Amino acid sequence: MELVKRIEVLIEKYFAAETSMAEEQELRDYFSQTDLAPHLQEYQPMFVYFSSAQQESYGKTVSLKPGKKRYLAWISVAAMVAVVASVWMSNPFQPNNLGTYNDPEIAFQETQKALEYLSANLNIGIEEMSRLKEFEQTKNKILKNN
């Protein structure tokens, strides 16, 4: 009867995450027996499973190639630099065109030009993003195959 009381206390501590490794081993040992108190039998499958799961291991060796990650990181950095440089080179900032217009008609025409310019650059940016998505998909295929 004293053992059952101790096991009940240990179960309470176990569910409160306050047990030590030795106490958990005591619980596993108790529930591996066939003669259990009737009100504690509901916990037996859980502790039997934990005992068997503890013995499981992964037998295959995992080979890690340390230099490969560095190589892929530099490829992604180079791709980003290429994208930024191509967008900047195709449309460099022009500080001479900054100013105000006295004639509203000229201001309207210049605003239309600026919006067309912005639209064209957004379309180029969207195309570049689709290229990045293709690059990402290709990279994922390569990483999965190796």
Automatic annotation (TrEMBL):
It comes from the Bacteria. The chain crosses the membrane at residues 71-89. Keywords: Membrane, Transmembrane, Transmembrane helix. This is Anti-sigma factor. It comes from Zhouia spongiae. The lineage of its organism: Bacteria, Pseudomonadati, Bacteroidota, Flavobacteriia, Flavobacteriales.
